[in-house]
Amino acid sequence: MAETTLSAPAKPAPNSNRPGTAALLLNNTLATSGLAVLLAICLIALAAPILPLPDPDVTAPANRLLPVFSEGHLLGTDHLGRDLLSRLIWGTRVSLAVGLSATAIAAFFGSLLGLVAGYAGGRTDAVIMRGIDMVMAFPYILLALAIVAVLGPGLLNALYAIALVNIPFFARNIRGITLGLSRREFVDAARLSGKSPVQILFLEILPNVLPVIVITMSTTIGWMILETAGLSFLGLGAQPPQADLGSMLGEGRKILFTAPHVSIIPGLMIFALVMSINLFGDGVRDILDPRLRAGSLTRPVSRTAVERDCTSVPQPSSEDGVLDVRGMRTEFQIGSSVYKAVGGVDLHLKQGECLGIVGESGSGKSVTAMSIMGLVPTPPGRISGGAAYLEGEDLFAASNRRIKDLRGGTVAYVFQDPLSTLHPLFTVGDQLKEAISTHQPLSGKALTDKAVELLTLVRIPNAKERLSAYPHELSGGMRQRVCIAMALANDAKVLIADEPTTALDVTVQSQVLTLMNGLRREKNTAVLFITHDFGVVSALCDRVAVMYAGKIVETGTTEDVLSNPRHPYTAKLIDCVPVLGQPERRVDAIEGRPPVVNNLPDGCAFAARCPRARAACRRGEIELEMTTGDSGVRCLFPLGKGEDA
Amino acid sequence: MAGYIAKRLLAAIPVLFGLTIIVFLIMAMIPGDPATAILGSYATPENVAKLNKDLGLDKTLVEQYLIWIGNLFEGDLGRSYTLNRPVLDEVLERFSATLILAGTALVLCSILGLIAGIISAVRQYGWADKAITLLVLIGISTPSFWLGLLLILVFAVNLKLFPVSGMYAIYGGGDLPDLLHHLALPAFTLSVVATGVIARLTRTAMLEVLRQDYIRTARAKGLSERKVIYKHAFKSALVSIIPVIGIQAGFVIGGAVYIETVFQWPGIGSMLVKAISTRDLLLVQGGVLVVAAAYVLFNLLADVVQTLLDPRLR
């Protein structure tokens, strides 16, 4: 627990609006009802000795096979005239006790093995895990049967068998977690402070592993109850006169056709028990498993949701642009907070023009790029305002079908990391051909030829042979060339490139940039180029827009902005670029961090980091002041010519 | 590829040997003296000693194992004393019946599970997803032996749609339609739990894959949502689902023990249960060994299929 004490002061209650574990559990209706049923069953089973029940083992041949709701026997009687309700409750007691004991035994020994194997590592780990693998090579129930065969039928033996075959599940899970934890700093710290391995294992690691043990228990206990009941059903568990739910079911089976209630009732009880445990267990797992808790497993739909006020959709500017974005806003709804990633962005792009969007990570530049064709995942994203016109057509009002046709056809994308953006299980040829054939009626040889032609266009040697390569068989630069080829497949009018060179190393970067620059001039494609690097902008872009906290803070021709930045943020960004041949130049990182976009300050978002900020900067909305033609700056006190920020 | 399969096959050999050791040891650990067990408590010490010698029980454990494994290679798993026939013959005959049942159930649960999982993921939080999630939960919480009894009551006894038990009709049966008629209820019952597990996993796997960057690429290319989901996402999801189907094979074969008992299917599961209660341990040993070996081979197959799907594993 050293970990939590160390990190606690650094994070002052970041999740104060997150409900606690118990509250979360109670919010989950299914889990709560599971818990309620489970508690009810447990209470009744516990109270069996004090309930006014007839002796479950007293036979009364005269009253045999009474139906349900008979007088004095609410659930009827079995083939020996024993009261079924009483037997059911006492049997549930046995089944619960056996299931819980088996789980406890399996959890204890399994966790112990897992902790030791994960912490000791090396040979101990190898020996233990090989043994575990060996046991897991058996079908689970079969191994339990073999063990019962050796020990002989009986409830206790069935319990041991089920516990034993479940040990590997715990050992494996716990070992994995322990392995990860034992490399962490707080364990090193404990080791240096002279604690013994046993102390470290039980005082430092065990508390952190406990949630995993609980999850594994909650997911296996239902199984164990089922399996022990199964063994009893087969006659290998509880032996008469002792009865658990399984053996009651097994006995009832012999008279299934004459008195079905004798077998249906105990089966129903097993089902209710296991179902309530599973409901509750799922609830516990959802809460303790942080991946699910973050809600990260929500399926994004094919297109970003558009929720804008239709009465105030901005009109396209009169210019002859290919792409015209007006006042676009994109938000992310995470829990109860709204992150305004893009807060009203205007962009326009003429044919053959290259516009660079520059900003730090988190400035909203990628979201801007994705929003245009609705590629921001929903949930949690949504477009909440503005418009994007493609040759005069409002993309946010277009039908899904229309968007699908435009994507890859008129507007093509190149993304950042070519390893994760290419499908790992299809050859690059297949992916390239797919990009072509989605928009062009080509097939067979013509399709292959076109694919080869495209690969040759992006200067991939041996294009024909490369078609059958998988992405992981190519270098990073080659993969990005493939992505560019895919984007060029249908002579798109607009190419949106989202940091296409960031994941590549420097020499490859310049090759890819040169290639893109040549191709766009050749094909007269409009390019929206997202980057954080002013060096790249100067090499490629005609104009540039600088983004900060979801807004454009400065825009103008590349030359103007680079030689005479007017927003202090732009100036600082330019200062971040090292210049070849000027080793004495200071390369400064900008101090501080960009603001979190769910809680933007009033006034200029950069004020907190700006050396020139004054009181006026922290008030009201600051407009993007357009000066000459395409130039503009969102600053009350812009820099003069040659002035340093 | 062929090299990879050969390598996997070689790697399976030590596992199979390990299985024989475990099975041998389990039987060697049986408390009590087998000779006394066979001859009864009135046996004279001389007779016990003689039988021990005949059974090779006076040798060390290692020698006994070597003899046993030697016999195994010759196809000799001993003789069942209750059935008075070679264990191997009985086991293989029974195992083919189990393979029919478990194989059908496995195909059934793979198909149903995949379909349910995909629908659940595609319609996440919709009514179909909620219905499937609930059904899955019910499915994996239902004792299969009890479900079997209920199905017999409803579909065999009341509706008379299917036979109550057995593998073939006693009179005039024996052909494929007859087999399928008898197979329907037990195979369905056996597949329920595994269907639930596979459906759950498919849902998670699909949801995980649908968040990947390459799915965004597929959408940016202008692919139809159908292609994005059923071609791009499903193929990736399948890679992580195949091993789970391999593991489910073990649960299905194990679960067959109950189902064969309920439906009186003449498979290896019902044979094992009977052999355990009659303490016919050679039969238990042979049965466990054959089923475990089949399970190992099946997982090997799952590995190979996974490798075929995922070029990165080659």
UniProtKB/TrEMBL annotation, chain A:
Residue span, ABC transporter domain: 325-574
Subcellular location as annotated: Cell inner membrane; Cell membrane
ABC transmembrane type-1 domain span: 92-281
Alphabetized UniProt keyword annotations: ATP-binding, Cell membrane, Membrane, Nucleotide-binding, Transmembrane, Transmembrane helix, Transport
SMART domains, alphabetized: AAA
InterPro entries referenced in this protein's UniProt entry, alphabetically: AAA+_ATPase, ABC_Ni/Peptide_Import, ABC_transporter-like_ATP-bd, ABC_transporter-like_CS, MetI-like, MetI-like_sf, Oligopep_ABC_C, P-loop_NTPase
Membrane topology: Peripheral membrane protein; Multi-pass membrane protein
GO molecular function, one term: ATP hydrolysis activity
Cellular component, GO annotation: plasma membrane
Top-rank lineage group of the source organism: Bacteria
Pfam families reported in the protein's UniProt record: ABC_tran, BPD_transp_1, oligo_HPY
GO BP term, example: transmembrane transport
Residue spans crossing the bilayer: 25-51, 94-120, 132-152, 201-226, 255-281
Keyword presence, ATP-binding: yes
Sequence similarity: Belongs to the binding-protein-dependent transport system permease family. Belongs to the ABC transporter superfamily.
Protein name: Peptide/nickel transport system permease protein
Species per Swiss-Prot/TrEMBL record: Roseibium hamelinense
UniProtKB/TrEMBL annotation, chain B:
Membrane topology: Multi-pass membrane protein
GO BP annotations, alphabetical order: transmembrane transport
Pfam families: BPD_transp_1 (PF00528), BPD_transp_1_N (PF19300)
Domain of life per record: Bacteria
Transmembrane segments: 9-30, 95-122, 134-159, 179-201, 236-259, 281-305
Location of the protein in the cell: Cell membrane
PROSITE patterns assigned: ABC_TM1 (PS50928)
InterPro entries assigned: BPD_transp_1_N, MetI-like, MetI-like_sf
GO cellular component, one term: plasma membrane
ABC transmembrane type-1 domain residues: 95-306
Presence of keyword Membrane: yes
Annotated keywords: Cell membrane, Membrane, Transmembrane, Transmembrane helix, Transport
Family under the similarity heading: Belongs to the binding-protein-dependent transport system permease family.
Name assigned to this protein: Peptide/nickel transport system permease protein
